[in-house]
Amino acid sequence: MALSIAIVGAGGAVGSALLMHLLKSSTLQAGDEVVLLGRGTPESSGRLFAIRMDLLDAFDESAIRISVCESIGDLKADVVIIAAGYTISPSRRTRRDLAASNQPLFQSLAAKLSRTVPNALFLIVSNPVELAVGIFAAHMEPQRVIGIGAQQDSLRFARAIASQIGVHRSKVRASVLGEHGQAMVPLWSSVHLTLDEPETASRLAALIERFENSDTRSEVNRTRDTLESLLADHQLAAAYEVMEHVSPSTRIMLEPFITHSQIHSTPNATANATLEILGAALMADGRRVHGQVQLHGQFQGIKGVCGVPLEVRLTGWQVSSQLRLTASEIADLHAAAEAIEVAIQESRKTECELLTHKR
Ligand SMILES: NC(=O)c1ccc[n+]([C@@H]2O[C@H](COP(=O)([O-])OP(=O)(O)OC[C@H]3O[C@@H](n4cnc5c(N)ncnc54)[C@H](O)[C@@H]3O)[C@@H](O)[C@H]2O)c1
């Protein structure tokens, strides 16, 4: 049966990259449909119709249907990708600022989409991803809501490791759980090679020994100061060079901010991570991906939103049983889940205060 994928925020940096990746990859087949969902204003619809025409001119041979849905009430879709909302900028510097700005949008989208497409699979790109997942999971079946941040972080961790041992990412597997933010939990115990090559294996063993127990927090703090002065001087090459020499755990925390400082987003990496989860859902072959989901004790007894290993189908996620964590990783994961819960509660409190103020 033909598949329909809707994108909310299709005109943004991530949404545009996602469209390109979707239409260039073999994820969809002839007859499937990509729906660009508008905000319900003439300006938004106009822009989406123009984007549609440009895409048709580029990709018509693929025979994938591209349509614009002007009103959320008319939407029909099997998968909905949420890539709308504010991003980090000089006027919204922290995840807290972002939470305050994006919370009303998340609430409104979740309420409307739960009425029109309650049985869709929801892939959440927007940040703070944990807040969005919590809100969407309160409106639909929690099993149908997945934040893509942990997949993005896992891919970055694998690449950071691959680059330090001189191979490409296809040769390395690695997982990052927890928060898509400061409380992320890179799992050194999950790191392994997909090739049997003794020299590479010994380089990886040396890297793990060097960094597995290093103090990421203090390295992040030290390195952030160095980066800030390099960025202030527009020394981008030097900033990226610094990243080659820090721990992969530090690198995945800081490198996206260097990129963001120049192009205000990380569109292609994010589109790729989103597509990996979509691909896993379509193949439904039990491959492991990672995502922020609303847990009720299914992984390490955690209750709340947290990034965990997943198996995904179009009907929803289940926790993947393929990962064995060490005791200290389990402790870090519980600490991350608590930090996420505190941040979510804080955002809810701020929203309540704002509502009381308005009355
Ligand atoms: N998880 C990740 O790794 C990751 C990476 C990059 C961006 N993001 C997040 O994805 C979101 C989009 O990022 P971007 O870089 O594409 O930003 P962008 O500013 O380029 O695009 C934002 C999009 O959201 C739409 N939008 C804004 N307010 C809206 C509203 N009220 N209703 C409907 N649509 C609305 C805009 O029209 C635009 O299409 C942000 O929340 C950002 O933080 C996440």
Structural summary, described in words:
By secondary structure, this protein is an alpha/beta fold. It has a domain at 4-149: NAD(P)-binding Rossmann-like Domain (Rossmann fold), CATH 3.40.50.720. 51% of the residues lie in helices and 18% in strands. The chain has eleven helices and eleven strands. The chain has helices spanning 13-24, 42-59, 95-116, 129-139, 149-165, 198-211, 216-232, 236-243, 248-263, 267-283, 327-358; strands at 4-8, 33-37, 65-69, 79-82, 121-124, 145-147, 172-178, 184-193, 289-296, 303-313, 316-319. The strands form three sheets. Strands 3-2-1-4-5-6 form a six-stranded parallel beta sheet, with helices on both faces. It has a three-stranded antiparallel beta sheet with strand order 9-10-11. α7 packs parallel to α9 and α8 (236-243) packs antiparallel against α9 (248-263). The longest helix has 32 residues, at 327-358. The chain is globular. The model has no long low-confidence stretch (mean pLDDT 95). Nicotinamide-adenine-dinucleotide is lined by residues 9, 11-15, 39, 83-85, 87, 102, 105, 125-127, 129, 148-149, 152, 180, 265-266, 270.
